[in-house]
Automatic annotation (TrEMBL), chain A:
Descriptive protein name: Cytochrome c oxidase subunit 2
Keyword presence, Ion transport: no
Protein function: Component of the cytochrome c oxidase, the last enzyme in the mitochondrial electron transport chain which drives oxidative phosphorylation. The respiratory chain contains 3 multisubunit complexes succinate dehydrogenase (complex II, CII), ubiquinol-cytochrome c oxidoreductase (cytochrome b-c1 complex, complex III, CIII) and cytochrome c oxidase (complex IV, CIV), that cooperate to transfer electrons derived from NADH and succinate to molecular oxygen, creating an electrochemical gradient over the inner membrane that drives transmembrane transport and the ATP synthase.
Top-level taxonomy: Eukaryota, Viridiplantae, Streptophyta, Embryophyta, Tracheophyta
Reaction equations catalysed: 4 Fe(II)-[cytochrome c] + O2 + 8 H(+)(in) = 4 Fe(III)-[cytochrome c] + 2 H2O + 4 H(+)(out)
GO cellular component: catalytic complex; mitochondrial inner membrane; transmembrane transporter complex
Cellular localization per UniProt: Mitochondrion inner membrane; Mitochondrion membrane
Domain of life: Eukaryota
Location of the Cytochrome oxidase subunit II transmembrane region profile domain: 16-111
Leader sequence residues: 1-16
Family named by the database record: Belongs to the cytochrome c oxidase subunit 2 family.
Organism field: Erythroxylum novogranatense
Cofactor(s) needed: Cu cation
From TrEMBL, chain B:
Chain intervals with Low complexity compositional bias: 60-88
Organism taxonomic ancestry: Eukaryota, Viridiplantae, Streptophyta, Embryophyta, Tracheophyta
Superkingdom in the source lineage: Eukaryota
Organism field: Erythroxylum novogranatense
Protein name stated in the entry: Cytochrome c oxidase subunit
InterPro entries found in the cross-reference section: COX6B-like, CX6/COA6-like_sf, Cyt_c_oxidase_su6B
Basic and acidic residues bias locations: 14-34, 96-113
Subcellular compartments: Mitochondrion
Spans annotated as Disordered: 1-119
Length: 256, 184
């Protein structure tokens, strides 16, 4: 009963992890859609191979029996089958590699000029976000810390270990540049729905380009073992906004 | 600065390209800035002229109307030529100010979403050097053109967009103390 409840009665937030989740979270970027498609493509062939291999295995075990087949076959060589079973399995990974590499390199590609740069700076154990596109001096920038909401302070409907006090707000359908770095130890900025996982290395700026297709709140967690509170590091969530950036970002930069 | 002596590898990588490209790009920027300064006044003049001319044309003889027709297109074409240059440069500040009370759902007209462009010199995930180079470019530009030179503003915008605030603070301190590791 409990298991059935897990299976069918979970309220899934779609852009966050859910109990007993098997598949990916719903994609919100072309990248994540590419990842999901690749996964499905590969899985099709994977199932074919699995069925084929299982059939051979079970059949061999089934027929290897002292009553049904008292005298086993004495074959130890077969040139044709040996060539086939060497060449064919080596071709399969090659055909998997082609779409895989295409996807991999398209992830690194920075094709267009981004419209917004957001800096995500990892700390033990929170994230600092900087929006500095509108600065006119070194001091003023829209900077805020994003802490996870502790378990005791959660309100009904909020996800444990995921909800944060300050969400990152980005526009939909806009090219974004996320600069990921760290101020202390290795962290990793990851949002599964966006197909993003980027190491945060102190002293180094890693760039990722994303293009969010739809509005929503997207959750993620630190993906690098970074200390005691690693599990409740940061929940990066993103909410799409219409005029929210101009409402929040600009007045704050002017005040700051 | 380090042009006479043989530059180190990092200096070659950082400076030579940048210095040359700066020289190439600056006159363009200068002309833009000049036109931007001129344009608003020109636009205002046109606006003040047009109503007066229109009044004349309606109130008085056809000859005045012809004159007004002759003058206004010329004035307006001047304004349209000058205006785009000014709008490119000035819209950022003007729209930022306007968008303070923005309440519509469209984001594009409210603020100009603009940041440091993708740089072909730094096509990889690692953008550390991009940030550093832009910081140096800005300070070299300031050293060459003087403090507050408008053509250096874009470099300032770029490095502020790319570099974490902490880094910039540290580098500023190092420059004050004369211990900045980069070539300035
Ligand atoms: Cu972490």
């Amino acid at each position: 009963m409990k298991f059935l409840e897990w299976l069918f009665l979970t309220i899934s937030p779609c852009d966050a992890a859910e109990p007993w989740q098997l598949g990916s979270q719903d994609g919100a970027t072309p990248m994540m859609q590419g990842i999901i498609d690749l996964h499905h493509d590969i899985f099709f062939f994977l199932i074919l191979i699995l069925v084929f291999v299982l059939r051979i295995l079970v059949r061999a075990l089934w027929h290897f029996h002292y009553q049904k087949n008292p005298i086993p076959q004495r074959i130890v060589h077969g040139t044709t089958i040996e060539i086939l079973r060497t060449i064919f399995p080596s071709l399969i990974p090659m055909f998997i590699a082609i779409p895989s590499f295409a996807l991999l390199y398209s992830m690194d590609e920075v094709v267009v000029d981004p419209a917004i740069t957001i800096k995500a700076i990892g700390h033990q154990w929170y994230r600092t976000y900087e929006y500095s596109d509108y600065n006119s001096s070194d001091e003023q920038s829209l900077t805020f810390d994003s802490y996870m909401i502790p378990e005791d302070d959660l309100e009904l409907g909020q996800s444990r270990l995921l909800e944060v006090d300050n969400r990152v707000i980005v526009p939909a359908k806009t090219h974004l540049r996320i600069i990921v770095t760290s101020a202390d130890v290795l962290h990793s900025w990851a949002v599964p729905s966006l197909g993003v996982k980027c190491d945060a290395v102190p002293g180094r700026l890693n760039q990722i380009s994303i293009w969010v297709q739809r509005e929503g709140v997207f959750y993620g967690q630190c993906s690098e073992i970074c200390g005691t509170n690693h599990a409740f590091t940061q929940a990066v969530s993103r909410k799409d906004y219409g005029s929210r950036v101009s409402n929040q970002l600009i007045p704050q930069t002017e005040e700051a | 600065m380090a042009t006479d002596t043989a530059p180190s590898l990092s200096e070659q990588y950082l400076l030579d390209k940048d210095g040359k490209s700066d020289v190439g790009s600056k006159p363009v920027d200068l002309s833009k800035e000049e036109s931007a300064e001129e344009a608003p006044t020109a636009a205002i003049e046109v606006k003040t002229e047009e109503p007066a001319a229109a009044q004349e044309s309606t109130g008085t003889t056809p000859a005045a109307a012809e004159e007004s027709i002759e003058t206004t297109p010329a004035a307006s074409s001047e304004s349209t030529e000058a205006a785009p240059a000014s709008s490119e440069e000035n819209n950022e500040t003007a729209e930022e100010e306007k968008s303070g009370e923005g309440e519509t759902s469209e984001e594009k007209p409210e603020i100009k979403l603009e940041t440091a462009p993708a740089d072909f010199r730094f096509p990889t995930t690692n953008q550390t050097r991009h940030c550093f180079t832009r910081y140096i470019e800005y300070h070299r530009c300031v050293a060459a053109k003087g403090e507050g030179a408008p053509e250096c503003d874009k470099f300032a915008k770029y490095y502020r967009a790319l570099c974490p605030g902490e880094w910039v603070e540290r580098w500023n301190e190092q420059r004050e103390n004369g211990t900045f590791p980069g070539p300035l």
